[in-house]
Amino acid sequence: MKFKLIYPKWKKLRGQTEFHLPPHGPVVFAATLPREVEIDFVDENLETVDFNDPADLIGISMMLTSQVKRGWEIADQYRKRGIPVICGGIATMLHAEETSLHADAIFLGEAEGRMEQVLDDFRKKRLRKVYDYRTDFPPIASVGTARRDILKRQLYNYKGIQMVDLFHASRGCRFHCYPCCMSFVGGTEFRPRPIEKVVEELTAIDNNRLYIVDNSLSQDRAWEKQLFREMIPLKKKWCCHPIEDHDEVLDLAAQAGAWFVYQAVFDTSDFIRNRIKRYHDFGIGVEGTILLGLDRHTEDDIRRLIDFLLEIELDLAEFTVLTPFPYTPAYADLHGEGRILSYDWNDYTCDKVVFQPKQMSPERLQELYDEAWKIFYREKPQPYRMVELFKRVIDMEMADGSFRRRQRARANTKFGRGEI
Amino acid sequence: MIDDLILKLKKEIITELNLETMTPDEIDAEAPLFGEGLGLDSIDALELVVLLEEHYGIKIRDRKEGSKVFQSIKTMAEYIVDHQKK
Fold it and tell me: Minimal CA–CA distance to A366: which of A15, A9, A58?
């Protein structure tokens, strides 16, 4: 049985240097399929979907809201050809009703232990319209090592440098952040994977550089410390979402190879200033994810915030505009107040103002957003800051003997594209 | 003496940057390392920084210093000689 698994393309953040990471959802999902299933994975950000290539079943994996419209187009095309389509992933959960109009089946929730049944239904031509496991999480120990073998690894390579591999050590999140839908998607109970499974998977990844995609590592101190202790001998280098601000935790994280963290920066408080300083004190870099357009943000606040970012010496900054994704507190507020200006999901790329801001016009917020990138990167341009951050990981690797040179034979290629 | 160092650097650059198709004779010590000359790129620049650290114990502190040092193999050699005297 040939299962074609497609990851639809989307428009990347304007202003950010082009990069493509190997997707995580599809490889985690692929691990839930029986081994006899032949999987052909297509990342449409880097490849073209060949609709004439034969397949028995099409899977469309969607993580982002900005992928869904393209995902529906792909589904429609295959169904016209008489090939059944099943959709899954976070964005399918956020847009379930609309997606079910374009698919033979939608899968909501986590797939471990469920795919044998779905495939059996498919073989017997009795696929259900909806497989709804949203509130029925499988045992966390059943999460296996992701099937990274389905990836065409040369596509995730920039001039001979392999991009980080994505990995997760836990699911669920006990925080309820304003712009985030993760409590809806993965539940509010923190569900750490058994440490031995985590180590087993980490050991199997043929890449020294990783992105630990857990919502936040700062959920359970004892677990966090145990995780980092176990990671020290593996000599991996990694970026991640926030790490708890605690001496021993930060020290262990640094020993375990913490390279840099993505840290949300939303105001100019001493709390944020100190948070960034603490990471730096432990030799951990910081890429700020800067959210503009909260109700309390005036024009002056946004300008002050950009100056503040330079003052606290953020290593990199990624600017986003508040975007009301379904099932987030932001959506509840803005939708409830009639302030959402666009429900075109292709606009939900986080660099477009799709709502009426409280303190200014949408056009003014859009201008300030564009200015933010320019001002932050004026003195030290983005490529230079990225090289500095890259040098940081090289220094860490040289110190523990894990440094590997880039693949020179690919020096003239960029994400699978030939000569530059 | 600087000629010996230039030859050594050429060999090291060929090895470390995997420029296997080149020989030391083919590399002009005064040609620009980047762009039109040897055709190296920004990631090679980073690898040259690493090479200086690993082989000569010399740290390049900032971009300004780097662009002075990495003009050509000759400027690299001169920088090493100058730095090692101190």
Answer: A15
